[in-house]
Design a protein that fits this description.
Elements: E1 10-13, E2 16-20, E3 29-31, E4 53-56, E5 61-66, E6 69-74, E7 78-82, E8 88-92, H1 93-99
Antiparallel strand pairs: 1-2, 2-3, 4-7, 5-6, 7-8
This protein binds zinc ion.
Length: 104
């Protein structure tokens, strides 16, 4: 389908209003109320206040067996997180400070 700079171009097909994606190089038409499959919009959300646990990394370089394979945590630089399903993973301390509050 030929790209078009026209936004909100619409067409009714069998009772469903189809919207043409407003991005110049995109050919998608999608049902009104949905997003373009190639240009999905960012939607505001917030992490649920689910309690997880963390600890200091062990002295030296600690190998953490994560769901995505072995990773390392460095003492003084990383924490080790224990997630809601028992999974463990390293996290940089500055990322922890920006995304978690310590409860106890
Ligand atoms: Zn698009």
């Amino acid at each position: 389908m030929k790209p078009s700079p026209i936004k909100n171009d619409a067409e009714m097909i069998r009772g469903v209003n189809y919207i043409k994606c407003g991005s110049l190089d995109c050919g998608w038409w999608y049902p009104e109320g949905h997003g373009c499959p190639d240009h999905n919009p960012w939607i505001k959300c917030r992490k649920k206040p689910i309690e997880v646990h963390y600890r200091e990394a062990n002295a030296g370089i600690e190998t953490i067996h994560t769901l995505e394979g072995d990773m390392v945590a460095g003492y003084g630089h990383d924490y080790v997180m224990l997630g809601i399903d028992g999974e463990v993973y390293p996290i940089k301390k500055d990322i922890y400070e920006r995304t978690y509050d310590t409860l106890e």
